[in-house]
Structures are given as C-alpha cells and as structure tokens.
Write a structure and sequence with these properties.
The structure holds 2 protein chains of 2 kinds.
Chain A lengths: L4 H34 L5 H9 L3 H12 L4 H12 L2 H8 L7 H8 L4 H7 E3 L2 E2 L1 H25 L14 H10 L6 H17 L7 H6 L11
Antiparallel strand pairs in A: 1-2
Helix pairs in contact in A: 1-2, 1-3, 1-7, 1-8, 2-8, 3-4, 7-8
Chain B lengths: L1 H25 L6 H7 L2 H15 E2 L2 E2 L3 H14 L4 H18 L1
Antiparallel strand pairs in B: 1-2
Helix pairs in contact in B: 4-5
The chains are: A mainly alpha, B mainly alpha.
C-alpha cells in the first residue's frame, strides 16, 4: 500500500509542496542553533532537541524561558503548552493513518503545522503520503539548519531581514483559501482568527491557537 | 547545563506523546460522524488562527508591521492564482524590501 507508482508520486508531491518552506524552516533552524549556542547549550543539545521535538516555536520558547533564568518546569510547560494543538491535529489525521502502532507513532512525529496543512484535502480529509513527504522534507531542513546554526551560525543572515517570518503566514493563507469554500468553514475560519487575536495580548503563547481550535465546535450543529 | 538536557528530554518525550495520541488511539478507523463534523472544521479554524498570530502577533501583543504588507502581497498573488512557491516568495520579498525601506 505504501509502494507503487502512485504512492511515489504522492510522497513526491508532499516534498514538492514543502520545498519552498524548507528554505524558511532551515533559516529558522539556523537561528535556533545559533541562539541556543549563545545561551550556552553547547552544540549537541540544540540538534538533539530539533531531532526529537521537531516543533520550532516550542523549542524557541524553552530556550527563552531558560535563558531568562526560568526553571526547567517553566520551560517544559511553556513548550508543551505550545504543542498542545498537536493533540486535536493528531485526531484529525488519525483516520488516515493506518499501519502498525509503531508506524503510526513514527508517522505522527512528522506532524507539524506546515506538513499537516499541506496534507489537508478539505472536508476533513487528509493525505498521509503528502504528510509524510512534506514532514520528512521539513524535518531534514530543520535538523540541518539547527546543526549549521550551532556550528557556524555567526556568519549567516538574520531570517527576519530576509522576510522569512512572513513566509509562514503566507503559506497558511494559501492553504486556507481552498478550505473555506463553504459557509460553515468560512465561519469557523473567521471565528478561529478572532479568538486567536483576542487572546494573544492576555494569555501565554500557545493558548490563543489551542483556544481557536474551539471554533470547530460550530460543526456540532449540522448543515 | 543538566537543566538544558532535562528540558530537552522532557519536551521531546512530551511532544512525541502529544503528536502520537490521536493516531495511536484512533488510527486507521473512521471517526464517529458527530466528531467528523467537528474535526472537518479544525483545518479552517486553526489555519486562520495561525495566519493571524504569525502575521500580527509579537510576544504578548498585536502589532501591525511589515509582515502584513507581505501577507497582503501574498493575498494578491493568490488572487492571481500564482503557485504556492511564488506566493511564499512574494510574501518574504515584500516583507524584506519594506523592512529595508522603513
């Protein structure tokens, strides 16, 4: 089921869709490695974290909490709070992840916002092969970037100067547009954005995005 | 230094568990219909929240800066049916150029 020409094409489609993002992801990986090195993490810890956590915003959060003199407990809670959205996201792709429990555990690790968004086919359907192709591409970019940053980041440019921080909302916008063709989906999108914007000034990072997922409860009422 | 490694270990294990939760508990089986209706709206709700937070959020505040110009340019590119690669590049380029100018 995982093999054959059509399977190959679908994995490759995921790789192709993720390729433009891989550049931006690598650049942020470089800044993560660089900042971690500057905070005295050494070269190994940032690379191990990128390989095992693979969720950029939570890694930056843990880094900054520890850097500000926060406790391990505070750093861990900030990071896991940011990653809590992957629980509902995991549920959304679960029906399309078949295979052994081990393969599901491994494939699930490739879920990040970008690979999940690329795998979304609308109406709650997901293409696991797109998810895997995109996820592996971004994973390679993230680890490579982190390694480059922690070894010789000083010489490299600031991703914000290159406008790469705007690449992510642009990707999500591009993937959002085909999702909001029907009224109920458009309502959920508007409500989700409104919740996130309203909560950003008053809650810790991570909470606005998790709270925005409550907008999908509009789906309780059918039709 | 050991605090760093403890953080790396706990965040790594915790994140892996959060990501695997749904696929392990529910993998390969269709969701109950009630839940499908809800989950089908997760993509639009979360994607638009990500657009909003990543274009407007900065620490704990909402700021209007060059990212918004990049996002607007990406919107125009999308409206002109540009491919994904072009949309992303346009957003980054417009943001970078407006940062140089301002």
């Amino acid at each position: 089921m995982e093999h054959g020409p059509s399977a190959d094409r679908r994995h490759r489609d995921g790789v192709r869709a993720a390729a433009p993002l891989a550049v931006a992801v690598a650049a942020f990986g470089i800044s993560f490695g660089l900042l971690a090195r500057a905070e005295g993490w050494g070269w190994a810890a940032p690379i191990v974290m990128s390989a095992t956590t693979f969720a950029g915003s939570s890694q930056f959060a843990a880094l900054s909490v520890l850097g500000d003199g926060g406790t391990v407990a505070a750093a861990v809670s900030a990071a896991l709070l940011l990653n809590a959205r992957y629980a509902p996201i995991g549920v959304s792709v679960a029906p399309y992840m078949s295979g052994s429990a081990l393969s599901r555990v491994l494939h699930a690790q490739l879920i990040v916002d970008e690979s999940w968004a690329i795998a979304a086919e609308g109406h709650g359907r997901y293409n696991t092969r797109m998810l895997i192709g995109a996820g592996l591409t971004l994973y390679a970019a993230w680890i490579t970037g982190t390694a480059v940053g922690s070894f010789f980041g000083d010489a490299l440019a600031d991703p914000e100067a290159l406008g790469l921080d705007a690449a992510f909302p642009a990707l999500f916008l591009a993937l959002l547009v085909p999702q909001v063709r029907e009224r109920r989906a458009l309502a959920a999108a508007l409500l989700g954005a409104a919740i996130a914007v309203a909560l950003t000034p008053v809650t810790p990072a991570g909470v606005p995005i998790i709270a925005a997922s409550a907008a999908c409860l509009l789906g309780v009422r059918r039709g | 230094m050991s605090g760093v490694w403890l953080t790396v270990a706990v965040v790594g294990v915790g994140t892996a568990a959060i990501k695997a939760l749904g696929p392990v508990a529910l993998g390969g089986r269709p969701l109950p219909e009630r839940l499908t209706n809800v989950v089908s709206l997760l993509a639009p709700a979360l994607l638009s929240a990500l657009v909003a937070v990543q274009a407007l959020g900065s620490e704990r505040s909402i700021v209007l800066d060059e990212r918004l110009l990049g996002l607007a340019a990406a919107g125009v590119a999308l409206w002109l049916k540009a491919p994904l690669l072009v949309v992303v590049i346009v957003a980054a380029a417009v943001t970078a150029i407006s940062r140089l100018v301002v």
